[in-house]
Hints:
The chain has 372 residues and is α/β, with parallel strands linked by helices. The protein contains twelve helices and 14 strands. The strands form five sheets. The chain has a five-stranded parallel β-sheet with strand order 6-5-7-13-14, sandwiched between helices. A three-stranded antiparallel β-sheet has the order 8-11-12. Helix 8 runs parallel beside helix 10. The chain is globular and about 95 Å long.
Amino acid sequence: MQKRRDKFSRTVLVSLIVIIITLIVTLFFAEIALRFYHYGQLSIVKNDDASRIKLNRYDEELGWTNIPNFEGYLSDPKESFNGFVKFDENGIRVNDNDFNAKGEVILMVGGSITGGFEVDNNETYSAVLERLFFENGCNYRVYNAGVNGYGTDQSLWTLERLLNIIHPKYVIYMFSSDDFVNNRTIKISNTLWGKPAFLLSNEELVLINKPPKDVEISYYAYIKYTDDGYDITEGYINAINLTIMSFIKRNFALYYPLRNISTYLKISPENRMEEKVRHEDVKVLELILKRMNQDGIELFVTSNTGKSEVEYIDDLVIISDDLGISYLNIFPFFTEEPGIYHWKTDKHWNEKGHLQAATALYEVLNPRLCEQ
Length: 372
């Protein structure tokens, strides 16, 4: 009997060892395959701490803003980008064009797609658009006020802040489907600052959390709409989990499928922020754009060209028509595979994406702004 128990124990132990070894070998080869797929190489591509520059500072009205008079490089060896970033005294990105643009002002507002921090100053779609106007004898000054992580709400407040400083005649808001989540966000864990947010209550916007509360880095909070109205969902992400995921993100290509699995299964409370709340999200967007459509300026709305943005074109067209503003559809100009225009594991445009976006915007704006 004892021999049979010992034999069974050895069998279980051997089986467990085999399973562990198989799992390790499988993860090893999966990591190799993912490295080639994502990075195009096998060796570990280490992040240089100096490349993770801080572009932002705390702002009691907007949550955070670009740092005025900042300059430096935003680098990621894994993605092979190394963008030179420079802001002026108002936190507006400098275009670095080799001419002094004159004429009316076009202000670009939006999030990181607009900011284009992965490419050099003169390669962003705002800088290229300014050159296209200039080269074709139609002078406009184009200002890029994009800030990473901004939703429609913070873009509105940016416009209101800059209105009497740069006096734009035209404003172009770049929509991204992330804006819906950002509009509902009060604070994301593992970020330094929270932000004000608009609540939709009785079909009207109510501003909360202004100025943003001073909270711990692991704290998160967002607006969750329910059948009865809304709740503020808040809590703290486990610091150990944050540390582990941050280490995996910085060192392993396995991070990407793990991230997708986590989002799909909604393992993290913050993953539930991604759930679409169609009516409320679209209504909040409409009311913010209504406030953005101020006297003395002409507002245009356009879209990032990612897959998740396509389903909202009809909503944007309807909102634009209702508010008497123009939706600039640049999707037809992006005729090649998305990988041509985006970084491999990053949804932001590369140099070709910014060039194509600028070319598209010039083509749709030229008849309105230049051929009059």
